[in-house]
Specification:
- The complex is a heterodimer of chains A (510) and B (258).
- In chain A, strand 13 and strand 14 form a beta hairpin.
- Chain A is of the alpha+beta class and 510 residues long.
- Chain A has eleven helices and 28 strands.
- Chain B is built from twelve helices and one strand; from the N terminus they run ααααααβαααααα.
- Chain B has helices at 3-10, 13-16, 25-39, 49-69, 72-83, 103-113, 135-138, 163-179, 183-196, 200-216, 220-233, 238-257; one strand spanning 129-130.
- The longest helix of chain B is centred in the N-terminal third of the chain and has 21 residues, at 49-69.
- The relative contact order of chain B is 0.09.
Chain lengths: 510, 258
């Protein structure tokens, strides 16, 4: 049996780790260039050659249209999704709809799904690990934001399989980070994991007791992260430049890339410094000569002002999670901060404000998730001789249910239910002489199915013809520990049965 | 298969978790986490499919019990019922599954169950509408059916916990405890099982656990006596044989060590 990696497939950076079979300790594996984290950037050359990581990032300024980054924000989304529509205006590469209407990217006239792009990153990580370990890598545990829905999860899994990895499990990022934390097992504790990464925000509340980690509730925002702040800074730079020179840079992908780079490094610098300078020479050319963008003092206060509105969005998920877990702020014993964005002082301040405790710096925010994934890989696909002691009880992050009459959404398994889980609910027919029912499975929190995500359907036919409401159908949802949903419909009177393993559709979602 | 999900409803969730009925939430959580640690699929990756499926049932029933008891009013209700003599569990005013259904749905259910203006034809076939899950508001419009729809999937549950079912559940949990060498817990569970349904199997297992407890404190002769009595009760009891073998091994090692 080959090595099983733990991979944190991030929006902006990815990281991998492996558990040392001899010691049971997880360690980060550097990539081929020797970096501990790999930028999730993929460059496609016209010749068909693909570059990944820092190499792709370096050539991005020259080939902004052929360099794809941040696809995690597009994965498993419909092209018509307002979030995608808003996002594509800011991206230097081309976002299109694939034949089935999902968001995809087009590079050199070729349409690729986000999952295909992600698989390039995963393949690069896999090959780096193989080169470093001198052993073949068989599979991986890949982390996803806790708030990803089933379609996004399936697409991530597909990316892993495309890269030649057996995906043993998809693990929620905050939970993974928790596994990497040093735990105090002497008494039960409630821990909040506040995970603000490049593109997603997750908050998970966990209860730790006797080597069992029980997730109490999880919530988040899949479109809130460091990239949002970067984009705000880019927008500010563009406006400043427009004011200074009268030239609008929004039509120039090269300039956008350089500003994005500058925005990110400015943001990082301002986590430590009170102010920093931005110098971008030769960003544009005017008839009278080259133009430079120069801001001698970009202050932390300015950054915080720009980001204030976005960061305010951190509040609602925190409050929701506390409510779902049935906890008050005083019940939280520790707050663990994960994700590069938690270096920003303003983010730390907000985490403390919403969760009542100062965040701990004990874990490396960039690596904790990958380390936790490696530990989980050891638990589920174990290579170390001794049985790992830790056990993880994770939850379903979004409610699962069925479409009922009038497009209403009837929840079978509510969000934050511990998995594995099983729920049965009895439904009746809507019409006289109705002989079959279509069970459409949706996921989400909206009261009607229109606001929720379609996952798939199955049909139970051959029902006895009878008056409306007299034929009963028992529907049973089972989620196993790997998060696979099995739906069974049964008509108790005749014993007729239909069942389906739900493989969320990437093709025809209504 | 769908009988299984109903089985946790047949018995008091406190019993499912092996508790007395007086515990507070932290203790209930502890009991649940302990059962979960024994029966979670991740802990059984080396075991056979059958064992995994069995453990999953146990996990699901423990989880259900914990979910029910997490709600303070349900906890009080079940605690009261636990305090009453076990032989006559009167049906509760509400079915135990009622709290599982979100209240918002109860109000919408009667509307949905009428044919009414069908808004679904866009998708060709009307899908099922939820049968009213909670009695008070929704039973009225469906008076002709005469019974609560929720009673449907679990036929025998009205009659109270079936001793055989309870004993089986206790027995299964006892076996898990035994497997993880938690003899005190296993002894307690088997003793309860034997009380509910006094079969030779349950009584023998009770003796086996007692034997193991003696063994762990090096009372070899008493351990031997327990195992032998278990064998008398149930000659094919493998656990008792294994226990006797263990005594032989351990006692010789112990004597050598001396």
């Amino acid at each position: 049996m080959g090595i099983v990696l733990g991979i944190d497939l991030g929006t902006t950076n990815s990281c991998m780790a492996v558990v040392d079979a001899a010691t049971g300790q997880a360690r980060v594996l550097p990539n081929r260039e020797g970096e501990r984290t790999t930028p999730s950037v993929v460059g496609f050359e016209a010749s068909g050659k693909v570059t990944v990581g820092s190499a792709a990032r370096r050539q991005a300024v020259l080939h902004p249209r052929d360099t794809v980054f941040g696809v995690k924000r597009l994965i498993g989304r419909r092209f018509s999704d307002p979030a995608v529509q808003k996002l594509m205006k800011l991206l230097p590469y081309e976002v299109v709809a694939d034949p089935s209407g999902n968001a995809a990217v087009r590079v050199h006239g070729q349409v690729m799904t986000p999952s295909e792009v992600s698989s390039q990153v995963l393949r690069y990580l896999k090959e780096s690990a193989e080169a470093r370990l001198g052993q073949s890598v068989e599979g991986a545990v890949i982390t996803v934001p806790a708030y990803f829905d089933e379609v996004q999860r399936q697409e991530t899994k597909a990316a892993g399989q495309r890269a030649g990895l057996t995906v043993h499990r998809l693990l929620n990022e905050p939970t993974a980070a928790m596994l990497a934390c040093r735990l105090d097992e002497s008494h039960p504790e409630n821990i909040a994991v506040f995970d603000l990464g490049g593109g997603t925000f997750d908050i998970s509340l966990l209860h730790v007791e006797d080597e069992v980690v029980q997730v109490l509730a999880t919530c988040g925002d899949n479109l809130l992260g460091g990239d949002n702040v970067d984009e705000l800074v880019v927008e500010a730079l563009r406006r400043i430049f427009l004011k200074q020179t009268g030239v609008d840079l929004s039509g120039s992908p090269e300039a956008l890339w350089r500003m994005k780079d500058a925005a990110e490094s400015t943001k990082r610098a301002l986590s430590e410094l009170e102010q920093t300078a931005i110098e971008l020479p030769f960003v544009a050319t005017a008839p009278e000569g080259p133009l430079h963008l120069s801001i001698p003092a970009f202050s932390r206060a300015l950054l915080e002002n720009l980001a204030a509105k976005e960061l305010e969005r951190l509040r609602a998920p925190c409050e929701q999670a506390l409510q779902d877990a049935g906890l008050r702020v005083e019940d939280i014993h520790r707050v663990v901060l994960v994700g590069g964005m938690t270096r920003m002082p303003e983010v730390r301040a907000r985490a403390e404000k919403y969760l009542g405790q100062p965040g701990e710096r004990s874990v490396n925010p960039d690596e904790a998730v990958a380390l936790g994934a490696a530990l989980e890989a050891d638990i589920v696909a174990g290579t170390s001789p001794e049985m790992p002691k830790m056990l993880l009880l994770d939850v379903l992050s979004r409610s699962l249910g069925l479409r009922t009459e009038g497009g209403r959404f009837s929840v079978l398994i509510p969000r934050n239910t511990t998995i594995p889980a099983r729920e049965t609910k009895v439904f009746t027919t809507t019409f006289d002489n109705q002989t079959h029912v279509d069970l459409e499975v949706y996921q989400g929190e909206a009261p009607t199915v229109d606001g929720n995500r379609y996952l798939g359907e199955l049909q139970l036919a051959g029902l006895p013809a009878a008056a409306a409401g007299t034929v009963r159908v028992a529907v049973d949802f089972t989620i196993d520990a790997d998060g696979i949903l099995q739906v069974t419909a049964r008509e108790p009177a005749t014993g007729r049965k239909a069942e389906a393993k739900l493989r969320p559709p990437t093709a025809t979602s209504p | 298969m769908s009988q299984d999900p109903s089985s946790p409803h047949d018995k008091n969730p406190f019993e499912v978790l092996g508790l007395q009925g007086t515990e507070d939430l932290p203790a209930i959580r502890k009991a649940f986490l302990r059962l979960a640690a024994q029966s979670h699929p991740d802990r059984l990756r080396m075991k056979s499919q059958e064992e995994k499926a069995q453990a999953l049932e146990l996990f699901l029933s423990a989880k259900k019990a914990f979910e029910v008891l997490s709600q303070p009013d349900k906890r009080r209700e079940w605690s009261d019922r636990m305090a009453r003599p076990k032989s006559a569990p009167t049906p509760a005013p509400q079915t135990p599954s009622a709290p599982m259904t979100p209240p918002a749905e109860a109000s919408s259910a009667p509307v949905a169950s009428r044919p009414g203006p069908a808004l679904t034809p866009a998708h060709g076939v009307p899908v099922a509408s939820p049968s009213p899950p909670t009695p008070p508001s929704s039973a009225a419009p469906r008076a002709p059916s005469g019974m609560h729809p929720t009673a449907e999937p679990k036929p025998a549950s009205r009659a109270g916990p079936l001793p055989a079912m309870v004993a089986l559940q206790l027995y299964k949990m006892g076996m898990l405890a035994l497997e993880s060498s938690d003899y005190a817990k296993a002894l307690d569970l088997f003793a309860k099982a034997a009380k509910v349904s006094p079969t030779p199997r349950h009584q023998a297992m009770e003796l086996v656990c007692r034997g193991h407890q003696y063994l762990s404190t090096r009372f070899f002769d008493r351990a031997r006596e327990s195992f032998e009595r278990a064998l008398q009760l149930l000659p094919e009891c493998r656990e008792a044989r294994a226990g006797l073998d263990q005594i032989d091994k351990q006692s010789s090692r112990y004597l050598k060590g001396r």
